[in-house]
Specification:
CATH superfamily: DD-peptidase/beta-lactamase superfamily
Order of helices and strands: HEEEHHHHHHHHEHEEHEEEEEEH
Number of domains: 1
Radius of gyration: 23 Å
Shape: globular
Number of strands: 12
CATH architecture: 3-Layer(aba) Sandwich
Strand order of the largest sheet: 2-1-12-11-10-9-8-7
CATH topology: Beta-lactamase
Structural class: alpha+beta
CATH class: Alpha Beta
Number of helices: 12
Length: 342
């Protein structure tokens, strides 16, 4: 009897070992395929995949590392969106339905315009201010101007307030200026106190405008591993190591869809994008050239990608291979991982 039990136990352990080995082999094969497909995207410089808080894969090329800072380009806008929420939670900004005239009274004293004065912080967050864009063809003129705030506010209306999306880096920059004026701290100092330091993140370069305000929509440098921390914190309802960094309701509101891009089928929340990918809703920060913080809540996963911008163009052709990689390889891998745990 004892020998029979021993034999059964041995067989059970052998089967378990075989199953584990087969599962491990399938996982490695899938990751090899992901790596192969990622390598075929010439501009891709880093790729990190994490699920259930466990790092599953990371790779870097052309001298890049986990801790080397990248200019995350317009993914900076999503960070500004988070900082706006923290400023509301901390009581510095009473409500996002405040008109922006409160923060730009000097401008509106010289340039009274009741319609512009009624633009709200909420309108800035969702890119529904209606003012002509300072991105794309107007970006150069904006950044060489001697006052970025005035240039952004000087733009004519091309849409109604609360109307269609008018994507504009100048609109996000106004949020940064509002954060500075509301808190009495530079946007960088505020970010370090309430977001970066609690997550042990070191911000690299960060451009400022001619008046010294930190840029609200571009040219912030963070490392891939620090981007991963932000994505994981958001997946965990705004908590990091037991501390509430961002209110869950702000994250929920940020990930809603208030408008859609004119150029792609992406939805837009409070400075965060979303789209359906392989049957799952993916929420993401997106920077020119292919800088991404991607979160797939249904799979409890974060995917980070950073890329070279050397050959990136306004046509944004880099997007297609990135989302093919996500849809055809990364998501199926994450599905298999989730199923193997269940």
């Amino acid at each position: 009897m004892h020998s029979k039990l021993t034999l059964l136990l041995f067989l059970a352990l052998a089967c378990t070992h075989t199953l584990f080995a087969q599962t491990h082999a399938v996982k490695n094969e899938a990751l090899d395929k992901i790596s192969e497909e990622a390598s075929a995207i010439a501009s891709l410089r880093s790729l990190i995949i994490q699920q259930h808080g466990v790092l599953l894969h990371e790779e870097y090329n052309t001298g890049r590392t986990a801790t080397k800072d990248f200019n995350i380009k317009s993914a900076s806008k999503s960070i500004i969106g988070l900082l706006t929420g923290i400023a509301v939670e901390e009581g510095f900004i009473p409500t996002i339905d405040e008109p922006i005239s409160r923060y730009f009274d000097d401008y509106f004293e010289e340039n009274p315009n009741p319609k512009k004065e009624n633009i709200t912080i909420r309108n800035l967050l969702s890119m529904q201010a209606g003012l002509r864009s300072t991105s794309s063809g107007n970006y150069g003129a904006w950044v060489i101007s001697n006052n970025w705030v005035e240039f952004a506010l000087d733009q004519d209306f091309v849409s109604e307030i609360d109307g269609r999306m008018v994507y504009s880096t100048g609109t996000s920059h106004l949020l940064s200026v509002i954060i500075t004026k509301a808190t009495g701290m530079s946007t960088k100092a505020f970010a370090e106190k309430y977001l970066f330091e609690p997550l042990n993140i070191r911000v690299g370069g960060w451009d400022r405008d001619p008046q010294g305000f930190y840029m609200g929509g571009n040219n912030m440098a963070l490392s891939p591993k620090d981007l991963l921390k932000i994505g994981q914190m958001l997946l965990d309802d705004g908590r990091w190591e037991g501390k509430q960094i961002i209110a869950p309701d702000w994250i929920k509101d940020s990930f809603k869809t208030y408008t859609y891009s004119n150029y792609n089928p992406y939805g837009y929340g409070y400075q965060w994008w979303n789209k359906e990918t392989a049957g799952y809703t993916t929420f993401f920060a997106w920077g020119h050239g292919g800088q991404y913080i991607m979160m797939i809540p249904e799979l409890d996963a974060v995917v980070i990608m950073t890329s070279s911008v050397t050959n990136a163009s306004r046509r944004r052709t880099y997007k297609r291979p990135v989302f093919i990689l996500l849809e055809e390889h990364i998501i199926p891998f994450l599905e298999n991982q989730a199923n193997s745990k269940s």
